[in-house]
Design goal:
InterPro entries: ADH-like_C (IPR013149), ADH-like_N (IPR013154), ADH_Zn_CS (IPR002328), ER (IPR020843), GroES-like_sf (IPR011032), NAD(P)-bd_dom_sf (IPR036291). One of its GO terms (cellular component) is cytoplasm. GO terms for molecular function: alcohol dehydrogenase (NAD+) activity; zinc ion binding. This is alcohol dehydrogenase. By secondary structure, the protein is of the alpha/beta class. It folds into two domains: 7-141 and 320-348, Medium-chain alcohol dehydrogenases, catalytic domain (Quinone Oxidoreductase, Chain A, domain 1), CATH 3.90.180.10; 158-296, NAD(P)-binding Rossmann-like Domain (Rossmann fold). It has eleven helices and 18 strands. The strands form four sheets. Strands 3, 5, 6, 9, 10, 17 and 18 form a seven-stranded mixed beta sheet that branches. A six-stranded parallel beta sheet has the order 13-12-11-14-15-16, sandwiched between helices. β14, α8 (254-262) and β15 form a beta-alpha-beta unit. α4 packs across α10 and α7 packs across α8. The relative contact order is 0.16. The mean pLDDT is 97. The structure holds nicotinamide-adenine-dinucleotide (NAD) and zinc ion (ZN). The site of zinc ion has 5 residues, from loops.
């Protein structure tokens, strides 16, 4: 452990609502079942902004180092860890740890574990140079991987990959991706393309339209211009029947109300985005006679992680990202609040 410094730079949220304060803090020491990862790059997820704003009915640690898309190098490990080596590449994701022995963990629904530890929410995350993760849960990243490019896969990629699985669609069928020009959305389009699923991107503005089409969307609907989202989405599908599934990634409530109307009968509405204080609302009659299914989807388990990363390693997932210094995190949040980010921002922890 000799090369691990005692101090490091981090972005610390000191009070609900922020901002982040760039300052020097102690380098943490891993416990017996943990590893210390020298984070090189971390993606900035909209969840990090929800955490800073205190948007959700789940208590958040304070002061807090946010971030949960951290890719780096293992520099220390606890005495119980023997399946990951110093020098290995690893990723710290939202699910920092879970008990591994409750009913949920035993059935590989680790995100439902009542004792789950959440990076950048209940434990300090990856907007620091050295972060801790439970060895059982850190993502194994193959040697030689571009750490900046894989960072967004660690939350956005895993989450949308899992959401597509939960949607139960087959190759050749159609999914509408709502919020398709954002961080999760751009990756969702790439996973759909890799799986042979038609994807209709729904988002706003020309920049996002361009991005969605370049990510492999079959069609695009601009929610800022559309006078009738339901008709416009259905019109992009085979015989106008509507998509087989809708994946909701948007950070506003309205699209959550619209999806049930345009999904195809027997289709699935998968909720992933979590706008503050939002509710699902759908007419009971239509839901019944159209046999619509509603499904929440929450990150992914360790196997989903392995599979989502494998798509990346095979060169199938290439979504745009912009690298900025860790010092610029507050500016990234400002852009995110305005919905002005096409794709993902990734922070370089050395700058
Ligand atoms: P982002 O800000 O990068 O993207 C959100 C996109 O939604 C933007 O492109 C925005 O233009 C678009 N949008 C806003 N209103 C819209 C509307 N009415 N119709 C269509 N598009 C609209 O955010 P992100 O990082 O991709 O995260 C998206 C959401 O997913 C957040 O709420 C985040 O907390 C959540 N999330 C959930 C999980 C999970 O496990 N369920 C995991 C990660 C993130
Ligand atoms: Zn996230």
């Amino acid at each position: 452990m000799s090369e691990v410094p005692k101090k490091q730079m981090a972005q610390v949220i000191e009070q609900k609502g922020g901002p982040c304060v760039y300052k020097e803090i102690d380098v943490p020491t891993p416990g017996p079942d943990e590893v210390l990862v020298n984070i090189k790059y971390s993606g900035v997820c909209h969840t990090d902004l929800h955490a800073m704003n205190g948007d959700w009915p789940l208590p958040v640690k304070m002061p807090l180092v946010g971030g949960h898309e951290g890719a780096g190098v293992v520099v220390a490990r606890g005495e119980l860890v023997d399946d990951i080596e110093i020098g290995d590449l690893a990723g710290i994701k939202w699910l920092n740890g879970s008990c591994l022995s409750c009913d949920f963990c035993m059935q590989s629904d680790e995100s439902l574990c009542p004792k789950a530890l959440l990076s950048g929410y209940t434990v300090d995350g990856t907007f620091q140079q050295y972060a801790i993760g439970k060895a059982a849960h850190v993502a194994r990243i193959p040697k030689g991987t571009d750490l900046a490019a894989i960072a967004p896969v660690l939350c956005a990629g895993i989450t949308v990959y899992k959401g597509i699985k939960e949607a139960g669609v087959r190759p050749g069928q159609t999914i509408a991706i709502v919020g398709a020009g954002g961080g999760l959305g751009s990756l969702a389009l790439q996973y759909c393309k890799a799986m042979g699923i038609h994807a209709i991107g729904v988002d706003g503005g020309e920049e996002k339209e361009k991005l969605c089409m370049s990510m492999g969307a079959t069609a695009f609907v601009d929610f800022t211009k559309s006078k009738n989202i339901v008709k416009d989405v259905q019109a992009k599908t085979n015989e106008g029947l509507g998509p087989h599934a809708v994946i909701l990634l948007a950070v506003s409530e309205k699209p959550f109300q619209q999806a049930a109307e345009y999904v195809r009968p027997r289709g699935t509405v998968v909720c992933i985005g979590m706008p503050a204080g939002a509710y699902l609302k759908a007419p009971v009659f239509d839901t019944v006679v159209r046999m619509v299914r509603f499904q929440g989807s929450y990150v992914g388990n360790r196997q989903d992680t392995k599979e989502a990363l494998d798509f990346f390693s095979r060169g199938l997932i290439k979504a745009p990202y912009k690298i900025v210094g860790l010092t610029e995190l507050n500016d990234v949040y400002d852009k995110m609040k305005q919905g002005a980010i096409a794709g993902r921002y990734v922070v370089d922890t050395s700058k």
